[in-house]
Amino acid sequence: MEETIEKIKDVLDSMRPFLQADGGDLEFVKYEDNYVYIKLTGACVGCEFIDYTLEDNLYEAIKEVVPECKGVLNLDI
Predict the structure, then answer these.
(1) Among 31, 56, 29, 32, which Cα is nearest to 40's?
(2) Which end of the chain has fewer CB atoms within 10 angstroms, the N or the C?
């Protein structure tokens, strides 16, 4: 499980500069039941492209290294 989490964190770290370029960022929260839980921050909060970011960018990138991943969910807390 730790190895999987490290792979996920590596992918998220590689995506972070793209989010930061637009004034946003993300935090890894947990990996549970094959779902990655993150918290989007900064300009990402309330952005109209949040679904695109989660599904087409983050999820697709994570799925390449963790095929069993079922999705990426944003925690609005």
Answers:
(1) 29
(2) C
Q: For residue 64, give the amino acid letter.
A: E
Report the distance separating Cα 64 and Cα 77, nearest Å.
Answer: 28
pTM of the model: 0.88
Tokens of 27: 């935090």
> What domains appear along the chain, each with residue ranges and CATH number?
2-74 (3.30.300.130)
What are the tens digits of pLDDT across the range 28-71?
A: 999 999 999 999 998 888 888 888 888 888 999 999 999 999 99
Q: How confident is the model at residue 77 (pLDDT cuts 50, 70, 90)?
A: low
